[in-house]
């Protein structure tokens, strides 16, 4: 039973380029969360999605950032026109509402470096 | 506003010693509280989950306590090992409709020295 899969694990972009981070949740999980973690800091909530719906995007910057979780395929966090301040580790987590425990299972993260 | 505060921010102990990490929260309506361990460069992994009615829960050398009245939790690590060096994150979830919105603490960075 595969865990949460994130790719790429490492991504290097130049300022102004686009970054796309992908997250495949655990099998049977329909809830996906994206978090950003800066060096030496805690995880910051960005967005919470269910299949084809954004439930809570209160932690996501209004500009340049977008997220989706289509009916088929992985969830994608997209950052347009990246800036150096976007350099961080981006973690995806999934959960299964059916378990009624709210446990989050995390991927290993995608580390974005903006040159 | 839901908040989770952890202390200390960082902690250094010698191998074999015990330690206790603290978590205070203002999250409503409370659903559950989890402690996660995050090794450097890895994703967090759940250690324990506690619901409103639970006071203590153990997982090997890790023991979590919860006082729902004072909204405090602690994570006690017994006989620490070098592999315990990690960030320990307290996560409190509030129920919102049929979903759970987790609020993360900033974590306590634990370093275990030989």
Task: Specify the overall morphology of chain A.
Answer: globular
On the 0 to 100 scale, the average pLDDT of chain A is 90
Give a quick account of the main beta sheet of chain A: strands, pairing sense, barrel closure.
7 strands, mixed
- Integer-rounded radius of gyration of chain B: 14 Å
Principal-axis shape of chain B equals globular
Distance from first to last alpha carbon of chain B: 41 Å
Main structural class of chain A: mainly beta
Describe the structure.
- The complex is a heterodimer of chains A (115) and B (114).
- The model of chain A has no long low-confidence stretch (mean pLDDT 90).
- Chain A is built from no helices and eleven strands.
- Chain A is an all-beta fold.
- Chain A has strands spanning 5-7, 10-13, 19-24, 31-37, 43-50, 53-56, 65-68, 75-79, 88-95, 105-106, 110-114.
- The radius of gyration of chain A is 13 Å and the shape is globular.
- In chain A, 0% of the residues lie in helices and 49% in strands.
- In chain A, the strands form two sheets. In chain A, strands 2, 4, 5, 6, 9, 10 and 11 form a seven-stranded mixed beta sheet that branches. In chain A, strands 1-3-8-7 form a four-stranded antiparallel beta sheet, with no helix packed on it.
- Chain B has 114 residues and is an all-beta fold.
- Chain B is built from no helices and eleven strands.
- Chain B is globular and about 45 Å long.
């Amino acid at each position: 039973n595969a865990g949460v899969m994130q790719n790429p694990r490492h991504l290097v972009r130049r300022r102004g380029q686009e970054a796309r981070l992908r997250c495949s949740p655990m099998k049977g999980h329909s809830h996906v969360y994206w978090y950003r973690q800066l060096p030496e800091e805690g995880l910051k909530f960005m967005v919470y999605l269910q299949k084809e719906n954004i439930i809570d995007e209160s932690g996501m910057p209004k500009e340049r950032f977008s997220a989706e979780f289509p009916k088929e395929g992985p969830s994608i966090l997209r950052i347009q026109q990246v800036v150096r301040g976007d350099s961080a580790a981006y973690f995806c987590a999934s959960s299964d509402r059916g378990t009624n425990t709210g446990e989050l299972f995390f991927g290993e993260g995608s580390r974005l470096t903006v040159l | 506003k839901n908040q989770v505060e952890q202390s200390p921010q960082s902690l250094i102990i010698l191998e074999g010693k015990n330690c206790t990490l603290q978590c205070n929260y203002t999250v409503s309506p409370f659903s559950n509280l989890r402690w996660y361990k995050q090794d450097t460069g890895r994703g967090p992994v759940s250690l324990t989950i506690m619901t409103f009615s639970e006071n203590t829960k153990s997982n090997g050398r890790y023991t979590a306590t919860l006082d729902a009245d004072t909204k405090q939790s602690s994570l006690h690590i017994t006989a620490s090992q070098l592999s315990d060096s990690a960030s320990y994150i307290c996560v409190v979830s509030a129920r919102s409709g049929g979903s759970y919105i987790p609020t993360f603490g900033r974590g306590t960075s634990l370093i275990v020295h030989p």
